[in-house]
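Usage

Read records sequentially. Each one opens with the input sequence:
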Amino acid sequence: MRTPHQSRRDLLKLTALGVAASVAAPSIVRAAGKPLTMMHESSFIPPFDAFFKKDLAAAYEKATGIKVNYDIVSVGGLLTRVTTAAENGSGPDMSTVGFNWAFLFDEKLVDVSDIAAEIGKESGGWYETAQEAVVVNGKWKAIPYANIGQLMNWRTDWFKQAGYDKFPDTWDELLEAGINLRFGLQEAEPDEKHGRFSFPGQGQSTSPGPDAREARIDARHRNKAAL
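and closes with the structure output:
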């Protein structure tokens, strides 16, 4: 029988590589082990939740004899649930995480570097931005499985009013610019005081416009710069 620790790692591989790979592989029949729980925020595309429960979880149970419970959390509530599980040392066996959470819960997450290496080898490697989001102190603390393309928009006129002719090159410069913008535009209309920055949720974004430039986003410092 597989231990719960081994079973979690097996399921991570299955979900990351896709159900097709697991179905094509020979079925491995084992004695039923302890059920696993996977926590996931309610998907904006409902068919994904149905796919996980009906296809991924079912395929894993068929291959291993271990049932997977899919725990759906309401939108906006996942961080609270993950925090509670980390503090109490109990809860789901696995969970999706976002943004810089791998850094927030570093000591509570297991090292899955071996899984990342195997998936990377089979899939042609990992993008650098994916590694930046989940590799903490040289160890993979989560397995990236999705990316959302987003843009960072910036008001060139507001920046010029605050004394900046180009977009900051570093997070420290961006933080300084944000502070100057906050206190230098006090006369702005109320509706203009919101949305001065639109931060993306992934590792890299691009600023559109005629004088656009590429800005790399380091998840470790996102919270510091979000004003």
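Summary fields computed downstream for this record:
- Strands lie at 36-41, 68-73, 94-95, 135-136, 139-140, 204-206, 214-216.
- Residues 17-31, 190-227 have pLDDT under 50 and may be disordered.
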